[in-house]
């Protein structure tokens, strides 16, 4: 999304909200080939 923070150091930490959290790679073609993750926080 526009204005979304991009994390690139490899040591980044984020606090996840409860529920569904989706992350994708912004490199062209990577999301379409599976570079994405879904994390469900209980």
TrEMBL record:
Keyword Metal-binding: yes
Domain Phytocyanin: residue ranges: 1-42
Pfam families: Cu_bind_like (PF02298)
GO molecular function, one term: electron transfer activity
Matches recorded under SUPFAM superfamilies: Cupredoxins
Keywords (A to Z) from UniProt: Copper, Metal-binding
InterPro entries the UniProt entry points to: BlueCu_1_BS, Cupredoxin, Phytocyanin_dom
TM helices/strands, residue ranges: none
Domain of life the protein comes from: Eukaryota
Protein name as it appears in the record: Basic blue protein
Organism: Trifolium medium
Lineage: Eukaryota, Viridiplantae, Streptophyta, Embryophyta, Tracheophyta
């Amino acid at each position: 999304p526009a204005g979304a923070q991009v994390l690139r150091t490899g040591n980044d930490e984020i606090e996840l909200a409860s529920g569904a959290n989706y992350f994708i790679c912004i490199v062209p073609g990577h999301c379409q080939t599976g570079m994405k993750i879904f994390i469900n926080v209980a």
